[in-house]
Each structure stands twice: as structure tokens, then as C-alpha cells.
Amino acid sequence: MTQVIWIIAAVLVTFTAGYVGYSRYLTRFVELDEEAETPAHKYEDGQEYVPSKKPVLLGHHYSSIAGGAPIVGPITAGAIWGWVPALLWIALGNPLMGAVHDFVSLSGSLRHEGKSIGYMIGEYVGESGKNMLLWFAFLTIMLVVAVFALVVAIVFHAYPQVVTASTIYILLALVFGVYLYQFNGPFIPGTIVFVVGVFAAVWVGLQYPLALFAGDYPAGTIVLLSGDGSVMPGAAALEAVGGGNTAGWIPFVLVYAAIASALPVWVLLQPRDYLSSFLLYTGVGGATVAIVVGTFLGTSSEPLVIDSTIGAFEGFWGVEAAGYAPLFPLLFITIACGTISGFHSLVSSGTTAKQLDNETDARLIGYGGMLGEGLLAAVALSTLAVWGAPDVAGGIGAALPNFASGGGIILTSFGIPQTVGAVFMALVLCSFLLTSTDTAVRLGRYMMEEIVGTPAGRTDTGLNLDPRSIARGRYTNPIVQIVPAYLLVVSGQWVVLWQLFGGANQLLAALALLTATVWLANWDDNKQLVSTGVPMAIMVTITVLGLLILVFYENLYLNLLQGEAGSLEAMISSGVQMVLGLVLVGLALALVRLGYNNIQTVRRSPDRPAAEPGDD
Fold it and tell me: What are the phi and psi torsion angles at 416 (to 5°)?
């Protein structure tokens, strides 16, 4: 039987070649200058623009971009179409498309005062293009917040030990932020002490698990509230993934995200992401090394080979249980963040660009950070291979336990008990998700600040009666985001939410690559546009086709014409999905047209100055 180590070996080879060769070329191509003043220094305000040490910012960036999608996507895709197609898309697509996407989004933002990709596109195609992209990004952010809050709640229910551990490491991060920025404590000794504290939190979580409502939990779990939580909004709809307990954790996660997004970055975001990065590096790196050790020394509890339930290639249409699932284009949308993700462009051009201390740090943080997420996707695919195929129709609820259970088997290579390893991998997953959730809320505020207008380096509390101030306010904008996100999750259509998130996210990646291509074309008519233009064209094609399948086949044909929707609520949901899908496609094609026209004009008239925002 095929050994799992070949999955890891394949991505390490292509990722190493990409970082050593292609990223160095891209660094010269966009002319990064270590002597240039970055937005973090130019607009330093102690709130959003804060120059950060490279390892601290790498920890924040990696923690923010890596969420549940690079775990759910590869596991689901591998189960439907086989592990070989999934592996090839991760190993080749990540260094040639995803890492390029993240790198140019970060580099472009550096040259545009730390502004978002929406602002960047507005510089060249006009105010209408800017607003279209910003609204598209803001709506996508709300889907991201809803999906990530849901997934965190599912993990909290499945592994109550993670609730305790996550709470402790957030408290440790708050103390670490004060230690570093208020008391100027020594960096390395502080890192050692607080990192040890984070790993100690895992042990505390194992001893004192926490749950909101009664359920089937490990012995010794502390249940905080009486009853089974059936009175919670959305409990019935979420019955398959935890019911009342899961529904109860969702508002906790959303309120946490709102509060965390309003705090200055040095209070929680930077120190927490830096500390959790050690947990994440240990989880991803430890699982990678464990596969090598277990393979060559045979120390794992089970042979690290690809389970017989996982085919190398299940055919173009995939396994029968998945229904109508053509490999092209659905494989590429399903894997999503493991290879390329539009959400990363918002992180790169949002929080990260405002904290970059040196332009040349963008190579490691932008390009290298995405390779790290690709390695996470490869580890997720490996957990599927070891544990066996989940229920492909189970979506999130089937994929997440697979990651923890398969990861627990892999970590037995180090002599770690499988139950302990599974909890640790669940905590790793939750660390990714928590950081991504509150970063997403913060990014949503940045989007709205640019939509309604806010001078660079200035923030607004929103605590007045001015509608524009409320919309962009540090304390009020998070409410604008988390309330709709909560309603989306508890509406009973949480499975649909994942599909909409995937389509919007991948389409946003295409638009971010379009933005980079337009920027490069306007910068210098001698700049080649292949590195960003070809991935952009591929992603537009894949995503538009995928959304059209969702709109016309799954919803119009199956749900409405064939009557599979079943209920009035499901029919309404299908109608909403169709409208949203067509709106996403229409916005994307309109922006592609604007971008293409701008590139054509610039290339025909090289001396023409770039358009200013509003020149439409």
C-alpha cells in the first residue's frame, strides 16, 4: 500500500523550489526595498499601524490566514475525487498561484499606503470599481465570520478540552502584550515563558474540559448551564453537529471576535497570534515530522499508509455518494484555501501591510506564509489517508473530526497517546479559527472605513449619531457584522453557508489577482503580466463555472424543478443562493471588464498616467 509520506514529500519538494526560486524572482520583480519607509512607520499610531518584528508578524499572518477551509477542503476533495488530484492541486497550485496571490496583495498594499485591494483597484479603474470590490469583500467577510464562528463552535462541542485551553491562551496573550509593549520586557525570555504557558494550557484543558450544556463528553467535563440547550436559536438546525451546545457557543465566539477586533493590535492580536503560532507550527510541523519518524522507525500505533477506502483517483465524477460532482471545476473550489484563497488578500492588504517593518519581509510573510498553509492542507490530506474516508455528504461535521482523529494516530509516532494527540490537533485547528475570526471582523471594519471614507492613520469609535461614523466605528462596526453573521448561522441553512463562502472566497482571489495585474500594468508598461494574469484567468473561469453549477444545476434544476428542496424554507434558501450566485458572477465579470479595459488603454498609451479614484 502507498505510504502517506509521499504526500508530504511531494509538497515539500515543490514548495521548496517555489520559495527558493520563484519568490526570489518576484521580490526583485516588484522591487522591494529594505530602505523604503513602510506604512507601519509612516502612519504609526499604536492602534492599527504598528511596526512589528518579523517573527511576530509572521505568527499573526499565518494564524490569520489558516482557518478551517484548508482542513475541510482537502479532506472532502480527497474523499470525493481521490488523493492524487487533491495532492496535485495543492503541490502545484499553491506555489504558482496561491503564494503569488498573497505576495502581490501584500506588496501592492505596501505601495498604496497599506490600503486594501479595493482601494488599489479604485486607483486605476475608478470609484465604481473600488466600491464594487469593497462591497464584495465586505459581504464575503460576513460569510467568513459566520462560517468560522460555526466551525469553532463545532470544535468546542466535539472537544470540550479545547474550550479551556483556548481561554487560557487568550488570557496569556493579553498579559504577554502588556509585558512586551507596556513594560518593554525582554523578548526572548518572555517568549519562552509564555510559550510554555500555552502548552501547559493544553494539559489544563485535558484535566478540566468545559461545555455549556449537557451532552456526551469526556469524563470530568464541567457543564456550565443546565439543560441540553434546545432552547438556543438554531439548536434544531445544528442537531447533526452538536445541537444546543454548538448553538450556544456561536454567540460567545462572535462576541469575542467583536471585542478582540476593537482592541489595539498590540493588546491581543499581535501577542496572541505570535504565541499561538508556536502551537500551530508544532501541530503542522510536528505532524509532518511524525509522518517521517513513523514511516521509517515504525513507531506509530498504526502503519502510516493510505487507507483502502481512499482511492488514488475516483474518476472525473467522483464517488457516487457525492452526487453530481465534476472534478473540473469543483475540485479547485472545494480545496480552496489550501491552494489559493481570496480571504488572504484581505489579510495581506489589511492588517499585515499595516504592521510590516521592512518591505523585504513580504517575501517570507506573504509568499512563505501561504506555503505554510499549503503544508497544513497536505497534513489534512494525510489525516484523511490515515483515518479513512469520511461521509462525503457530511461536510464540516465529517471533515473536522477526521483531522483530529487522523492527526492523533500520526502523533503516536512520538509516543503520544492517540486521545491526547487528537485533542492537541483539535486545539491547533481551533487556534487557527479563533485568530481568523476576529481578524476577519477587523478587516470588515477596514473595508467599511474605505467605503465611507476615513483618512489613513485615523480610527473612529462610532459612539455618536453620525451614520457614517457608526458604520466604520471601532466599537460599532463589529456589531454590524456579527449580527447578520449570527442570523445566517442559526437560520437553518448552515450547510448552504459553506457553499456560498467557498464561491465568494475563490472569486475574491480572482479579483485580487486582477487588482495586482492592473497595478503592475499601470506601474510600468514593460512589466510582464503572466505571473498574475494567468492565475487570474484560471480562477475566474473555475469560479464562474462553479457558481453557475451551484445556481442552475443544484438550485434551479434539483431543488426547485425536481422538488428536492422539500420545504418552503429550503425553496426560499435556494432562491437566495441563486440570486447571490448570479450577483457574485455579475460583479466579478464587471470588474474584469473594467480591469481589462484599463490594461488595454495603458498598454496602448504607455505615457498615460494612472487614473485617480473617481475618474470613471
Answer: -80, 130
- Please spell the DSSP secondary structure of 191-256, one letter per residue: HHHHHHHHHHHHHHHHHS-EESS--S--TTPEE-SSS-STTSTTTTTTGGGTHHHHHHHHHHHHHH
Count of helix runs (H) and strand runs (E) in the chain = 24, 2
What integer is the mean pLDDT of 287-299? 95
Nearest CA to 516 out of 610, 615, 595 is that of 595
Q: 566: which residues sit within 8 A by CB, 6+ positions away?
A: none
Q: Which residues contact 521 (CB under 8 A, 6 or more apart)?
A: 527, 529, 598, 599, 602, 603
β pairing state of 222-223 and 210-211: parallel
* Cα gap 82→75, rounded to integer Å: 10
Give the sign of the dihedral formed by CA 131, CA 482, CA 56, CA 510: negative
The confidence band for 394, taking pLDDT boundaries of 50, 70 and 90, is: low
> Quick one: cell of 600?
488595454
76, 322 contact by CB (below 8 A): no
Residue with the three cell numbers 422539500: 566
pTM, two decimal places: 0.87
Stated as kind and residue range, the H or E segment containing 329 is: helix 327-335
- Give the residue extent of every domain in the chain: 4-309+319-604
Write out pLDDT tens, residues 85-132.
999 999 999 999 999 999 999 999 999 999 888 889 989 988 888 888
CA-CA-CA-CA torsion sign (421, 423, 429, 431)? negative
Q: Tell me the C-alpha distance between 202 and 276, whole Å.
A: 12
CA distance 324 to 319: 9
- Contact between 112 and 343 under an 8 Å Cβ cutoff? The reply is no
pLDDT digits (tens, 9 = 90+) for 296-330: 999 999 999 999 889 999 999 998 877 778 999 99
* Eight-class DSSP state of 611: P
- For 562, other C-beta atoms within 10 Å of its C-beta total 9
Q: Highest-confidence range of 55-69, 82-96, 216-230, by mean pLDDT?
A: 82-96
Is residue 102 within 8 A of residue 316, CB to CB? The reply is no
Residue 418 C-beta-side C-alpha neighbours within 13 Å: 12
Evaluate if residue 614 carries a pLDDT over 50.
Answer: no
Distance CA 561, CA 571 (A): 10
Average pLDDT, the chain: 88
Q: Which of 126, 129, 98 is nearest to 532 (CA)?
A: 98
Q: What is the largest CA-CA distance in the chain?
A: 72
| pLDDT recorded at residue 281 | 84
Q: Which residues face 222 on adjacent strands? A: 210
Q: How many CA atoms lie within 13 A of 137 on its CB side?
A: 38
